Amino acid sequence: EQAPGYRAYCAKREGQVIRWLEIGVAAAHKDGLGFDVILDRLPVGGFNGRILVREIGAHPPEPESALPPTSE
To answer: Mean of the pLDDT values across residues 17-21?
Structure first.
């Protein structure tokens, strides 16, 4: 198993505000065909099911593009 080289995030809606929450890390498999994702926390409430994995040091994209608008 490789050392984690990626961070895992989820986009969470809080009213009309969306923000990224760091929820764990990921490590690439030695054969390059997949990842192990290790979650430190489980997202609940306002979570759309999407988990973003980015290289450590790379920032997530602007959260406005992460979730579709709601009719709240």
So the answer is: 84
> Could you give phi then psi for residue 30, rounded to 5 degrees?
-60, -30
Residue 5 DSSP class: -
Percentage of the residues of the chain whose pLDDT score is greater than 90: 42
CB 48 within 8 A of CB 11: yes
Residue 37: pLDDT band (50, 70, 90) is very high
Q: How far apart are the first and last CA of the chain?
A: 44
Query: Which pTM was predicted?
Result: 0.75
Angstrom distance (rounded) from CA 42 to CA 39: 7
Distances (CA, A) of 12 to 28, 66, 69: 25, 9, 12
